[in-house]
Design a protein that fits this description.
single chain, 225 residues, mainly alpha, 3-stranded antiparallel β-sheet, 13 helices, 51% helix, elongated
């Protein structure tokens, strides 16, 4: 397993690593560094589960962006266990766990949102889709911090669009970013708010009054006929 051998295909990496493991060898830190994160993604879930926390910690940051959601979750759990003794140092812990946040649960992301850390956009978009969809606008604001403005450049991203349609318009307006269109806010008395392109603007449409006006108009027309 030598980096100078060039990039492996998924089939090749699976064959090489499996042969290595069948020779009664383990995926220690040296082997993990040589394999690299992308090739690591070719392993099965059971093979990944055999990686120990100390070995993953000592291997340093691995790019697991090519892994499936299930594999990211396995690697996150291992990394989280490996770094538990450093969790008291907020910034150090974040920088070490960052490559594995794509497999993190909602509770971990919400915890990070309270640590006054501005998560970079690439890391934010690497989050599990199911986790991202459960975030509130306030969560997103706290998570991105100074990087919140990059949300405006990603309005056409399917992941962001899926998140937007789940959010109340009034909550999106608090972000102060134009172009965020969510779902109308229900109000008492049969009134709804129609979202507009500019953040912070709502058009109040009294549906009850519209109905009454229509009834009166129809009655007047019938008398004239």
């Amino acid at each position: 397993m030598k980096p100078e051998d060039g990039k492996w295909t998924a089939d090749k990496s699976t064959a090489i690593i499996t042969k290595y493991l069948n020779a009664n060898k383990t995926l220690d830190a040296v082997a993990l560094k040589a394999i690299g994160g992308e090739n690591l993604c070719s392993l099965s879930l059971s093979q990944l589960n055999n990686i120990t926390a100390p070995n993953l910690r000592d291997a340093g940051a691995l790019d697991i962006s090519a892994c499936t959601p299930d594999k990211k979750k396995v690697l996150y759990n291992i990394a989280s266990a490996a770094l538990i003794n450093q969790s008291s140092d907020v910034l150090t812990y974040y920088n070490l766990i960052k490559p594995y946040l794509g497999g993190a649960p909602l509770t971990e992301i919400q915890r990070i949102s309270k640590q006054n850390i501005s998560v970079d956009w690439t890391t934010f978009m690497s989050l599990d889709k199911d986790v991202l969809l459960q975030l509130t606008p306030n969560d997103v604001k706290s998570i991105l911090g100074t990087n919140l403005g990059q949300l405006q450049n990603a309005l056409q991203d399917p992941k962001i669009q899926a998140w937007l349609v789940l959010q109340q318009q009034s909550a999106l307006n608090t972000l102060g970013i134009t172009g965020l269109i969510g779902k109308p806010d229900p109000l008492p008395g049969g009134i709804i708010t129609a979202s507009t392109v500019a953040a912070g603007t709502n058009l109040v449409v009294p549906r009850l009054l519209q109905t009454l006006f229509t009834c009166v108009l129809v009655a007047a027309l019938q008398k004239m006929l």
